[in-house]
Amino acid sequence: MSGILECPIDFATSVYRNGCTVVICNLKDRPDYLLCRVVNESSGLTSDADHVTYVARNLNNLSQYSNGKLEQNLLHVYHVVLAAYAPCGKQCSAELPNQYSLPESQLVTPPVNSFWSTHFLTSANSTEYVLLSHAFVLPSGTVTVRTSLLDASNPENYWQSTKNLPLQNNSTTKNGKLRIEAPGFEFSSNSNDSISTMVWSGSTDHYEYNLTVKATSRVLLNAGTGYFSWGNGNTSQWSLPSCQTSGMLTLDDQILQVDEERSMTWYDRQFGFGGVDSEFTWFGVHFPGSEVKASIWLSDNKDPAQHLRFATVRTDYGLEIVRFNVTIEPENAWTSPNSNYTYQTRWFLDFDNGDFLDIKSVRNDQEIYAKNSIFSSSPFTTVKGRFFGQKTGFALVDISPPTSLQGGNAVF
């Protein structure tokens, strides 16, 4: 790849990955100084990074490595430092030090393998809906498809469905791109990076949807790098909180055109080997008209002992991680007649920076339940308080009961 990067060096090496060429130089007179350049050949985007001490630590004694070792470590650098310029564009990484390639993470198949989207939809006739579409791919060759639809203007109107379905071709990819297909459901991408444009489609007894989601949102890397210890292992999670969304929603016999100027999608990708043995709650928080988005984890584990209370906050200028304490009250709970499980419906969060939030479900029953399937609650909530200069917002919450109550359907 000569000509891409020229400098007086002891060595230079490059690797082509995901439509990008990454080149690293080690300056002859500065053994501790590395210069990196990444070129997205499809977009022409070029970026340089120097004084990368993290890179230096991972490529120690470079001149002593064989070419194979150089490439292996260079790929690590690509995943950790330079994935910012994957073909999906700058918005997919926001120049943050994630520990893996986001496009490649769309295609991996670890034991915990979750693809999650909440679509905040406004129809052409100005009716607002909250649609959850979640695919949890299991090692058994099946996929649990969870979905719910809430009429935000009239929360009494609520529908939900969860099914365990055979995964078509027992694969989450086709021709090197993301494709999860099952009877009555599809989540796929025709983009080379499997992120830039994604399609969600599905049908239930009451509604159908066919939505196109474009990765126009800056990424939120949970815990700062998209990787953290969770329960009995490690998990990876990244989010695109406000993606452009278009398409159709059919409710009973009414076909609703989605107004893409007033609609958006929070896409959340979680995968890895970790899981918890107790209940966990996750909040995806929006503040309309603001760049502030928050992914908030409230999670407990008995063995090994772990109590997560942290928010990863996407701001105008990057990410911040803030600890919090939670207060819940017995009167703010609801017991499901289906699962007999008691869910919290309101949370008071007090953050270490002095901010606070009151998060409250718009209706009690937002459980997604079916016999012989995983059950959980995914409530749409209001958000009030003081948080990074914001006062009001909304959130989609996931409350997952302990795996011990899920029987043979446990996925963590």
CATH architecture call of the largest domain? Beta Barrel
CATH class of the largest domain: Mainly Beta
Which structural category fits the helices and strands?
mainly beta
Number of helical segments? 3
- Helical percent range? under 10%
Mean pLDDT: 82
> What portion of residues belong to β-strands?
over 45%
Are there runs of 5+ residues with pLDDT below 50, and where?
1-20, 26-35, 40-91
Could you give the distance between the termini?
A: 44 Å
| Major sheet attributes | 14 strands, antiparallel
- The beta-strand count equals 30
* CATH homology-level superfamily of the largest domain: AttH-like domain
Count structural domains.
2
Gyration radius, in Å: 22 Å
Pfam families: CrtC
Protein name: AttH domain-containing protein
InterPro entries: AttH-like_dom_sf (IPR023374), AttH_dom (IPR010791), Fungal_Dehydratase/Hydratase (IPR053112)
Organism: Sclerotinia sclerotiorum (strain ATCC 18683 / 1980 / Ss-1) (White mold)
